[in-house]
Amino acid sequence: MSQESEEAIARIFKKFDVKNDGVIDFDEIKTVMKSVQLYPSNQKIKEIIKRVDLDRDGVINFKEFVAMRRSEEVCELNVLAQFKKFDVSKLHRGVITRDGIYTVLKEEGVSDEAIKEYTDEFMALDSNGDGFVSFLDLYESMMTRIPDEWLEWINTNVLRGVPDDTLMKILVENGFNQETAARLIDKTRREGRQVVERSYVDVGRGYVCGIKS
């Protein structure tokens, strides 16, 4: 995202700026959330805006939106922006497809080789193998939230007596860093099954696909 041009960022901004007045306000965030069947509380939407609203005027202007897109620090609005960027398929609305990624990146002038590499990495987020990346898939990756299916898998295998080094090997092979894997195994052994804190992302309907265990 740090390599996006202002023109590319402007195209995403326009998807949020429904009123076309140069800023993104509370109602517009709520509208975009509803478009992907997400229903956060009013307080949560205010928190999402506050995270990006640098001048504290209650809305997000284009300069603030650009700063968010180019920041190394991930926030929930940036996850939504990334999702809306690639949610362009006319055949499959509300999910990200290979063709959708290609269409967007080709328009940005990215080479075919770079598009393929990026698309393969992006589509690896598809948690249930249906060929689509859901908002939940993207959210859990960008916000580095551990999918509940992995917490269940760790607990099941800890109870079975599987050695820690075997669990570590499998987790690392599936994208976990060693520190996170070791922490999860240790906490599971000491405290039992770990639980993901539920949020508006988990209780959404429609486009937000539940993780299959």
Automatic annotation (TrEMBL):
Alphabetic keyword roster: Calcium, Repeat
Pfam family, one: EF-hand_7
A GO molecular-function descriptor: calcium ion binding
PANTHER family referenced in this protein's UniProt entry, alphabetically: CALCIUM BINDING PROTEIN
Limits of the EF-hand domain: 4-39, 40-75, 113-148
Organism: Streblomastix strix
Gene Ontology annotations for the cellular component aspect, listed alphabetically: organelle
Name of the protein in its database record: EF-hand domain-containing protein
PROSITE patterns per UniProt: EF_HAND_1, EF_HAND_2
